[in-house]
C-alpha cells in the first residue's frame, strides 16, 4: 500500500455506533487517515478520539461543547480546529482536503451536509439513511451532476452493492444503468427486530425490551425502527434511490439469523446474495476501500456453525409502520419526508416513555392521514425547500397530535 496516496476521511457522527466502528476499521487500514470528526455533545468520547486520531478539524453541535473541547485541546492539540453547529458540519462535509465523507449522523439533520459533500464531488460512504429517504431524487441527481459517488454503508445496501459490483453497478448507481443489468427484484432481509417472535399484544412492551435487538448492536433510534419494522420500510426507499429499482420490485423477507444481508434476483431467475456474520465493520470497510477488498477483523463465517437459514413473510398487520413506510415510498414526492419526520418524533416520544410502542405507528399513521387532507401537499418532483417544509410540518403535527 506504501505508494498509494492517503485517503483523508471525515466522519459525521463519530461518537455514534457507526462512527465508533468506523474508527476501529480505519485504525487497521494503513491508507486511511482521519481528517475530521463531528459529534453532537459526547465530548468525553470525542476527546479520546482526538487523542487517538489527531484530526485537523472537530465539529460539535453548540458553543458550550466547543468551549469545553477547546479548553482541553488548547495546549495538547493546538492545531486542531473546532467548528460548531450546522454550518460547521456543512463546511467539514465540503472541505477540499477531504477525500471521503462518512455520514453516520442519525436523522434528517444529515441532509444539508450530505448535499454539500455531493456538490463538492466527493465520495460519500452513507450510513445516514434518513437523508436519502426524504430527498433521494434530489441527492441522486446532485451526485450525478457533480460526479460524486454514494457508497452504501447500511448492511443490506452494501450487500446489494457487493452483488452488483462485478457487473459494473458502481456506475449503475450514478447513471441509472441498473435497468441494463436486468434486475428483476431486490430482496431485503430483516432480522425481525426485538418482537418478531413474541406472542400477544405489543402495546405494553417496555423501552428496554424494544432496545434489545436479537442480532445487531446499534444506536437507539435504529433499534426502535427495527422493532417496529419501520427500518425495513425506510431501507426499501433507500434501495429504490440507490439502485434505481422501482418500489414494487423491492421485497422484504424476515431472516432471523441476520447472515444473508440481502439478495438480488436477475431477469433469468439467478439470485446473488452476500453472507457474513452481522458486523457493521464489514460494510463500513467495503465502503472505505471500494473497489478493493482488504483483510478485516470480522469473524469468518463457518456455514456448518449456522446450520439453518430461515426466511419468512413479514406480518404487516402486526407491524403497521412497515406498510406505512412502503406506502410513503410508493407515493414519492414529499411523502417519505412526512413519514420520516413523524417517525423521528414518535420514536423520541417512545424513548422518553411518553407514548406506547404501538403508539409509534399510530402517531405516524395520524400524521400521514392529516397530510393526505392537507391542501398544499406536493406530489412528484420537489426541491429542497419543499422537502424541508414537509419535514417541519410532519414534526410539528406529530408534536401537536401527541400533546
Ligand atoms: Mg440495515
Helix content: 40-55%
- CA-based gyration radius: 21 Å
For the biggest sheet, the summary is: 7 strands, parallel
What is the fold-level CATH name, i.e. the topology of the domain at 7-152? Rossmann fold
* Portion in strands: 5-15%
Distance N to C terminus: 57 Å
Strand tally is 11
Question: What is the SS-derived class?
Answer: alpha/beta
Low-confidence stretches: none
The whole-number mean of residue pLDDT values reads 92
Bound molecules: magnesium ion
CATH architecture of the domain at 7-152: 3-Layer(aba) Sandwich
One letter per element, helices H and strands E, the order comes to EHEHEHEHEHEHEHHEHHHEEEHHHHHH
Which strand order does the major sheet show?
4-3-2-1-5-6-7
**CATH homologous superfamily designation of the domain at 7-152:** NAD(P)-binding Rossmann-like Domain
Helix count, DSSP H or I runs of 4 or more residues = 17
Shape: globular
The CATH class name of the domain at 7-152 reads: Alpha Beta
Features:
alpha/beta, four-stranded mixed sheet, 11 strands, binds magnesium ion
